[in-house]
Amino acid sequence: MNIVVVGTGYVGLVTGVALAHIGHRVTCVDVDEEKVKQMGRGISPIYEPGIETLMKENMEANRLFFTTDGARAYREADVIYIAVGTPENEDGSANLTYIYQAVKDIASSVTKDVIVVTKSTVPVGTNHEMQRMFQQLAPHVRIDVVSNPEFLREGSAIYDTFHGDRIVIGADDERAAAVVAHIHRPFGIPIFQTDIRSAEMIKYASNAFLATKISFINEIANICEKVGADIEQVAAGMGMDQRIGSSFLRAGIGYGGSCFPKDTKALAKIAANIDHDFELLKAVIEVNNKQQRKLIEKARERFGHIQGKKIAILGLSFKPNTDDMREAASLVIARELVAEQAIVVAYDPIAINKAKAVLPKEVIYASHVEEALKDADAAMILTEWDEFRQLDLSIYVKQMKTPIIFDGRNCYALEDVKKYAIEYYSIGRKPMN
Ligand SMILES: NC(=O)c1ccc[n+]([C@@H]2O[C@H](COP(=O)([O-])OP(=O)(O)OC[C@H]3O[C@@H](n4cnc5c(N)ncnc54)[C@H](O)[C@@H]3O)[C@@H](O)[C@H]2O)c1
Ligand SMILES: O=c1ccn([C@@H]2O[C@H](COP(=O)(O)OP(=O)(O)O[C@H]3O[C@H](CO)[C@@H](O)[C@H](O)[C@H]3O)[C@@H](O)[C@H]2O)c(=O)[nH]1
Q1: Using CA atoms, how far apart are residues 21 and 44, in angstroms rounded to an integer?
Q2: What architecture (CATH level 2) is domain 259-425?
Q3: 11 within ligand 1 shell (Cβ under 6 A)
Q4: Percentage of the chain surpassing pLDDT 70?
Q5: Which of 11, 38, 81, 98 to mutate to test the pocket of ligand 1 (most atoms within 8 A of CB)?
Q6: Contact, 334 vs 346, CB < 8 A?
Q7: Residue 85 CB less than 6 A away from ligand 1
Q8: Which residues does the annotation say bind NAD(+) (predicted)?
Q9: Does the ipTM surpass 0.90?
Q10: pTM above 0.90, yes or no
Q11: How far apart are CA 335 and CA 329, in angstroms?
């Protein structure tokens, strides 16, 4: 079977590589010539653990190809996966420009029947609109649209693709659903087949639910700080109840990334469009916006004002093991610190290059942790990279002017911090000073 993947971002590239790895012949199409050139040399344009090894292996086995020539790829395809971006419009709704462009590109090229599988996250009704467009733009062939939302996490995308909890297939046509199920069967992951609209909704509802768990635990953390309870203990005790589950109960400075922020807003907008006021979800979003600024509040409380203070930021990406800066808490925090005329020195093991393009120009970059901490008045930990979790705490004492840590990801056990002359403020736990 000839499979084509449209868009080689986090989802498209991982999907293409994984489908090739289970034996399919896969051509990945992107409009970005530079990216395609890089991938043709076996270089991944994104940082994702394990991806380059799998890319090279499958390219060498002649199963994985990269091209900008979409027209040719679509002509020869049996199944086309769409994995282009669906970013946020100004009003919070999903921007479907790239989706509809891909539909037009495919419709103008295909000469035989084909199945189009939508991996991108799209609002309910979009796959049916795509189906309608195909019927109008390419009436000479049969094109079946299948919804197959993606659930991988950045930083563990390869693992998630091979070990996911479910593969959701939403289809109107049984034959098309069977073909997509057949393609995915080698993964050995349970397949949940449903109608298209439910499949589209499963994706938004799943992300909104996970975001709700995070905002919920963050609110509990905020209360813990005031009543003298410890959020780590509370989350551990809650998580032992299997009805609650222990995952996604890590309190911190909120969720970021390319999905939760935009997908929660898009779902609130989907609801608003049918005159449903999704109050709970709007509160989840509001709590997150406040939570991202928590360390600034703590610093203000501690210092009075932060003008002229040298602040070391440790961690810039929205989570560890990725260089993705989309909606990272560091964007909000660095901007606010710079606006208050603090001196900001930032370090991240992987994301500095991407960060330079989006953080204020006043931010100074360090090439290692010690350099960032040197003579700093305070450190703010924004991403829980292993490098920070495993850092010898004496380094803070040795390097900083005043060893004051604002830890937005609860990287250290309080008993460990207690052994050092460190002032330590974290999330949902008592301060150590
Ligand atoms: N990033 C994630 O972890 C993740 C996980 C699950 C679902 N999703 C969803 O998957 C979709 C893709 O997300 P992403 O983060 O991979 O996006 P991305 O922005 O990283 O990549 C999109 C790619 O599509 C390419 N593209 C755009 N229009 C094209 C066209 N007409 N033809 C060929 N290529 C085209 C772009 O050049 C880009 O390389 C989104 O809907 C997102 O919500 C993302
Ligand atoms: O207990 C937790 C878990 C996560 N986070 C934060 O939540 C954000 C998202 O983390 P994660 O879900 O691990 O990463 P993503 O790559 O954004 O993956 C989410 O978004 C993807 C895109 O839709 C989905 O495919 C995944 O299933 C979904 O987990 C990050 O900022 C994390 O720091 C917390 O604050 N506490």
Answers
A1: 16
A2: 3-Layer(aba) Sandwich (3.40)
A3: yes
A4: 100
A5: 11
A6: yes
A7: yes
A8: 30, 35, 86, 121, 154, 262, 326
A9: yes
A10: yes
A11: 10
